[in-house]
TrEMBL record:
Residues 145-163 have a biased composition (Polar residues). Pfam families: AAA_22, Pkinase. This is Protein kinase/ LuxR family transcriptional regulator. The keyword Ligase does not apply. Residues 1-128 form the Protein kinase domain. The keyword Transferase applies. Residues 139-164 are annotated as: Disordered. One of its GO terms (molecular function) is ATP binding. It comes from the Bacteria. Keywords: Kinase, Transferase.
C-alpha cells in the first residue's frame, strides 16, 4: 500500500476543499500547487515510495526546523536527488527519476506502465519478474467502464505501446558490436523482417535489445518484445505475441483473428527473441502479419533464419576483445569470463 491513508473513491465525498492531505514528501508537485489528483500524481507517489525504500529516507524529507512552505518549494522547484550517489544502478535511478518528474507528462502514463518498467528492471538485473497485481480490465470494470475491445477482446491503446514497451533496461555498457549494430539498423530500414542468427550465447538478444532501443522513437506505437525462449509448442505463439502487444481474451472470436486486426493499424517494431524452438510457427505468423500490417516491422533472433520472403539475415559472429593484461576475450565462447 502506498496511499498513506488518503485514498478515496472517485466521485465520493470530499473532506475538504483546497487542502493538502497526506505526506508532502510523497505528494506530486502539481497537487501541492492545487491541481486535482491524477494517475500521473499516483505514479509520482509510487516513485517517491521506492526512492524512500532504496535510500531509507524521502527524496524531499522535511529538514529539521524547516517550515512546511519551504519544503513545498523544494518539492516543486528542485530536481530529484540523484540515486546514483547512493550506489543505485543508473537504469534504476533513471526509472524512478522519470516517475518523480516535475512534469506530469514526462512520467509513465499509468501505474501499469510504471509497473512494466519496473518489471523490465527486474528482468535486466536477474530477479524474478513479478506479475502485475492489478490488470487494466479490472480497473476499467471497477470504474463502471467497459473495456475497450476489438470484437470483445481488450486491446491496450497505442499510447501505452509507445513508451519503452517491454524492453529490459541495460545493466552494463554496450561494447564490441558497433559494426553489427550499424549494419542491423541499415537492414531494418530496408527490410520489414531482420533476423539476427548465430550460436547460442553469442549475444544475439543483447544486440537486438540495443537495436530496438535505438530505433523505438521511429515507431509511433513503439516496440514490443516477445520472449520465446521458454516456448516449446508453436500453437502457443499467438498467445505469446498477443500478451506482449496487450491483446487479451474476452470473447469467442479466435485470438489470432483479433491479434491480426489489432496489428493491422499499428506502427510497431515487434522483437521476437529466441525463435529457434518454434521457427516454423514464427515463419507462418510473421508472413501473414507482414502481409496485412503495412507499418509493422519485425526484428528476430534465432539460431537459424526464419525463412520467409523479404527476410534480411545478419549473422552475429563471435568477437574478440582484450581484457587488462593483454589476454584475448572471446564473446560467445564457452566459459568466457565477463
Amino acid at each position: 500500500m502506498a496511499d498513506f491513508g488518503i485514498a478515496h473513491i472517485s466521485g465520493g465525498f470530499e473532506t475538504a476543499t483546497g487542502a493538502v492531505t497526506g505526506s508532502p514528501a510523497y505528494t506530486a508537485p502539481e497537487v501541492l500547487g492545487g491541481d486535482p489528483p491524477s494517475p500521473a500524481a499516483d505514479v509520482y507517489g509510487l516513485g517517491a515510495t521506492l526512492f524512500s525504500a532504496l535510500t531509507g529516507h524521502a527524496a524531499f524529507e522535511r529538514r529539521s526546523g524547516e517550515q512546511v512552505v519551504a519544503q513545498f518549494l523544494r518539492i516543486t522547484t528542485q530536481a530529484v536527488p540523484d540515486l546514483r550517489e547512493h550506489g543505485i544502478p543508473e537504469d534504476v535511478s533513471a526509472v524512478i527519476a522519470r516517475a518523480m518528474s516535475r512534469e506530469p507528462g514526462a512520467r509513465p502514463a499509468t501505474a501499469a506502465d510504471f509497473g512494466e518498467e519496473l518489471r523490465g528492471l527486474q528482468r535486466a538485473h536477474g530477479f524474478p519478474v513479478d506479475e502485475m497485481a492489478l490488470r487494466a480490465e479490472a480497473d476499467a470494470r471497477g470504474n463502471g467502464e467497459q473495456p475497450t475491445s476489438l470484437g470483445g477482446r481488450l486491446s491496450q491503446p497505442s499510447s501505452t505501446l509507445g513508451a519503452t514497451g517491454t524492453l529490459p533496461l541495460e545493466l552494463t555498457s554496450f561494447v564490441g558490436r558497433r559494426h553489427e549494430l550499424t549494419e542491423a539498423k541499415n537492414l531494418l530500414a530496408g527490410s520489414r523482417l531482420v533476423t539476427l542468427t548465430g550460436i547460442g550465447g553469442v549475444g544475439k538478444t543483447r544486440l537486438a535489445m540495443r537495436i530496438a532501443a535505438s530505433v523505438q522513437r521511429e515507431y509511433a506505437d513503439g516496440v514490443r518484445l516477445v520472449e520465446l525462449g521458454e516456448l516449446r509448442e508453436g500453437s502457443s505463439l499467438v498467445d505469446a505475441v498477443a500478451a506482449a502487444v496487450g491483446v487479451r481474451d474476452y470473447s469467442a472470436r479466435p485470438l489470432r483473428e483479433v491479434l491480426i486486426e489489432h496489428l493491422a493499424v499499428q506502427e510497431l517494431l515487434l522483437v521476437l527473441d529466441n525463435c529457434e524452438q518454434v521457427v516454423d510457427a514464427v515463419a507462418e505468423l510473421a508472413a501473414h502479419l507482414l502481409r496485412v500490417s503495412p507499418r509493422l516491422r519485425m526484428l528476430a533472433t534465432s539460431r537459424e533464419p526464419v525463412g520467409i520472403g523479404g527476410e534480411a539475415v545478419l549473422r552475429v559472429p563471435r568477437w574478440l576483445s582484450r581484457i587488462p593484461g593483454g589476454r584475448p576475450r572471446c564473446g560467445g565462447c564457452p566459459n568466457t569470463m565477463r
